[in-house]
Amino acid sequence: MNTTIWSLAGIGAVALVTFLLGYVGSRKANTTPDFLVARRSVPATRNAAAISGEYLSAASFLGVAGLVLKDGIDALWYPIGFTAGYLALLLFVAAPLRRSGAYTLPDFAEARLGSTNLRHFCTFFVVCIGVLYLVPQLQSAGLTLTTITGLPSWIGALAVTVIVVVNVLGGGMRAITLVQAFQYWGKLFAIAAPTFVLFVVFLASPSQGTQPIDDNGVMRFPKSEVVEIKESVRLRVTEPMTLRAEGTVDGAPANGSVYWREGRYEIGPNTKLSFTAGSPVPVVDGAPPNNDSWMRPQVGGIWNLFETYSLIFATFLGTMGLPHVLVRFYTNPDGKAARRTALHVLYLLGLFYLFPTVLGVLSRLYLPRLLVNGKTDAAVLMLPEAMVPNLGGQILGAIIAAGAFAAFLSTSSGLVVSVAGVVSTDIMPGKVRDFRWATVFTGMVAIGLALLLPRSDASLTVAMSFALAASTFCPLLVLGIWWRGLTWVGAVCGMIIGGGAVITAYALSVVSSYTGHWAPGVFTQPALITVPIAFLTMIVVSKATRRRRPQDVNQILLRLHAPDPLGFIKDRDIARFGTAEEKARLAESKPRGSTRSL
Amino acid sequence: MSRHDAGAPEPAARDEWLGESARKPRRRRVVLADTTKSRGKAMRTLIELEEQTSVGEKLVRDLIKQQLRSAFGLAGMVLLGLCFLPFLFFAFPQIADIKLLGIHLPWLVLGLAPFPILYAVGWVFRRQAERHERDFVNMVDR
Fold this sequence. Notes:
Chain A is α+β, with helices and mostly antiparallel strands.
């Protein structure tokens, strides 16, 4: 119970500081007559911290360590890809995109190719990617609150949705650089400090409380343990064992001692499994069953290799197409500063991603029970208490919980703002009221899907939205910026085929997860196939529709690439083309000064 | 600008954003950021750029080609390097047995090494891109 109080206090502190900074920041922005000029004087380092703060989501904070715990070394490709994505962004789009003066992706597409049809397609995919990215944030929020307080997971997801929507509506959580920058440093501290402490604890007494491994690399429970399974899982048993089960196993009610031989077992929801000390640890189906295969890279055969390549492609090329990333780049003064910011983001992300790996490895030693109930995303949250079962552990746990909460809040707010901004300007008339409705609508769709879709690991679902971004917006951006020959017909065709393939693959893998896991890994990681298809379609169709090339393509490319001192940069009219959030701010700053509900 | 007319963007707005030259070829005064140098020649080059005469177009094409070459070269290098690692581990599983400072080599290679390398590549690109732009400005500004 003590842990709950500490963690809730930590979460409360994060929420409070966020509110306060947002309040101060938005008041300051309101008193500045030209709000945009104030924003463009943000130094590159702080801007980079803000971008990182928004980018480091639940998938990074909880998901990476969870995947390392479950999948072992192959999961390290996630942090590598999440970071490398910013390199691709720096190389191909950062400076030209900033110079284009576009605020959102649909904006860019319309400016470059001059087609409102294309704009509508872009809007559709921005909403898809945004919602797909929001769902794991909300699901992880539910998981976090369940882990801390034991409440059912829908309460946590609902709570975060409500907080984010209310914040965005009230204006307390606007995309203000200071808040996001603070959240980056907060998150870094929340993961770095516990990592240092726990690592020292581990070095001081390496064998205390850890699970012993026998000569065959089979993991065993160090002491007798009761594992409660809330959502149904499929377990893989590699060594015969006896245990007590209360609940449903393989569809039949079980109550008492059972004997499991090698094979796969379907465990129903609300089942209690009691393991004796020294009994082998059964693992969730699909994870490496013993430590030896966990330790070694690429032991899963050719399909595993394919999935790794697919993941590298999706994350490397997908980052540039995420809706909440581009908006933040607009706060840079010019193209050169955009490049510097992207470079600094590489440094900040690289620094952060050193820590989840260490936590994941440690939790493999201390928390084998998470492999049984499949909630590996909770590893980071539970590790401090498992390693240091006293007040110190509780405080560390509270710090981590607060950091995780900061991660949900910042990423979800950024996503809701950018999706609602696009929805309200492109689908609705684009007034302040429409922005508010769009926010509520986005929140409702996201929470609905979060409760409806099966919860898989945060990083996996996030990787899916990266795949979607890489197969739609990446070719549009790269070809649009570097190739004169792109036409809007080609862009639309490429996005439909690339994006359609990813959405189909995702739908099939969701169906398969309900009907017996028949879909191969290609369906959860389709980027290696869909990205080249999308690029190819765009190029071929553009060549076929050559006469639809915009007449002014030369001027546009000049504007995108001409060095900043020549003065070709021209920002689009803010009142017309700004995101609704910015419009709301502009509109509000005129009639009233500081009265603002938080 | 009233906030009620902010619906779907009309073509006129786009033309406005693109500048006058997109609609009709008309001379337009462009002010350089640097006002101290003599501006006669530079102005002519700038106007050539803006109006996309054959000279201006050639200049911009060259700049884009240069930048693209840098970006593609570095991106290709990184992507090849990253994609080579899984294959290496797949083809030679014995690499996993090598230990460095008590940690298995692949964990070091994947957990630590990529981040400084990615930063270094980004740094090199930033330098190259800024040099290309400086050269371009110098050429225009001669």
